[in-house]
Design brief:
Number of domains: 1
Helix content: 25-40%
CATH topology: Aminopeptidase
Largest sheet: 7 strands, mixed
Strand content: 25-35%
Order of helices and strands: EHHHEEEHEHEE
Shape: globular
CATH class: Alpha Beta
CATH architecture: 3-Layer(aba) Sandwich
Low-confidence stretches: none
Strand order of the largest sheet: 1-2-3-4-5-7-6
CATH superfamily: Gcn5-related N-acetyltransferase (GNAT)
Radius of gyration: 16 Å
Mean pLDDT: 92
Structural class: alpha+beta
Number of helices: 5
Length: 173
Amino acid sequence: MKVTVTRATKDDAVIIALLGRVTFDETFGHLFSDRQDLTDYFDRTFSVKKIQQGLEKQDNVFWLAYYGNLPVGYLKLKISSPNPFLGSNEHPAQLQKIYVLKDFLSKKVGRHLMDAMYEELKRTASGHLWLSVLNTNERAIGFYKKGGFSVLGEHTFSIGKENFDFIYLGKKL
């Protein structure tokens, strides 16, 4: 089977919401001492309505990845997203989310999603691309560094009772 990537539409919000919840839980669920904090985060971040609203914003672009006919991952790009570590003249884009079901990570789904995103970025005025990643997510950090990203800075993000240390990564396009 092969991986295909399509640009998502508002009709794909249910698929994206479900993929977001499952992949986030697969990757980060074990870090939560209180499952209710995780459930509350899902309700805020991965509700169908929230995803639909995100799909309607002109500055957001979503892609879905399929392995055969099965949706296995998605990527969300924000075309114009300032970052405190980049100059205001840079017009940076932000890779906000890239989530792939655990069982399909070895199928290079992330690479296919990134390729679709880079094609879009060629058509925009973005000079830089940045993202934020959990500082203990070594697999993701390695993936990004292999793709030419370097560390820009650090920040903390809280979900419920949990505090997480993140790093900003960026690259010039």
